[in-house]
Design goal:
heterodimer, A: 111 residues, mainly beta, 56% strand, B: seven-stranded mixed β-sheet
Chain lengths: 111, 112
């Protein structure tokens, strides 16, 4: 089974609204990353948060990490149609060089 | 700056045929990865490399082989293609295990 599971699987909102998606994982991690994938393209890195960090911001993105609950959330504020994409979390397996990706949240922002 | 380039972009194979997917990166990254993406499954790691001349197995390595003879190239081979290997294959590279991965745009492979 996947290390990271995103929730919800799909999300549809109006332009200007905020979008929140969550990621849960199973084992201890050193860091967690969020990626975006536009249709037919490769993944693009958005933000990395380390296990000793609780919150991180990058432009309209806000990521939180709760290691006690083994969960993370990605908030996109003031969403735009261009934010329409799938969003994935990726967690490292401690002691390895591997990252495990979740199944993703498909976000649709309606203009 | 091209980043990560995957060749080919599309390919259709018959069961039992072999082929090699090429990944090239121009960022001097040590780490390179091959993933497959299937509907509802997210990305699954096939093989990875932590430097020139090294390779290691990921989550789903069966039926695939890889080579990293040059630092900038990471090849993924299918020796005898099976319909279950129909997927979109992504290559990625990074400068370190805690650094962002840079992805190519994928190879869409269909096996009939």
């Amino acid at each position: 089974s996947q290390q990271g599971e995103e929730d919800p699987q799909a999300l549809s909102i109006q332009e200007g609204e905020n979008a929140t998606m969550n990621c849960s994982y199973k084992t201890s991690i050193n860091n967690l990353q969020w990626y975006r994938q536009n249709s037919g393209r490769g993944l693009v890195h958005l933000i990395l948060i380390r296990s000793n960090e609780r919150e991180k911001h990058s432009g309209r993105l806000r990521v939180t990490l709760d290691t006690s609950k083994k969960s993370s959330s990605l908030l996109i504020t003031a969403s735009r149609a261009a934010d329409t994409a799938s969003y994935f979390c990726a967690t490292d397996l401690s002691g390895t060089y591997k990252y495990i990706f979740g199944t993703g949240t498909r976000l649709k922002v309606l203009a | 700056n091209a980043g990560v380039t995957q060749t080919p972009k599309f390919r259709v194979l018959k069961t039992g045929q072999s082929m090699t997917l090429l990944c090239a990166q121009d960022m001097n990254h040590e780490y390179m990865y091959w993933y497959r993406q299937d509907p509802g499954m997210g990305l699954r790691l096939i093989h990875y490399s932590v430097g020139e001349g090294t390779t290691a197995k990921g989550e789903v390595p069966d039926g695939y082989n890889v080579s990293r003879l040059k630092k900038q190239n990471f090849l993924l081979g299918l020796e005898s293609a099976a319909p279950s290997q129909t997927s979109v294959y992504f290559c990625a590279s990074s400068s370190g295990v805690t650094q962002p991965q840079h992805f190519g745009d994928g190879t869409r492979l269909s096996i009939l």
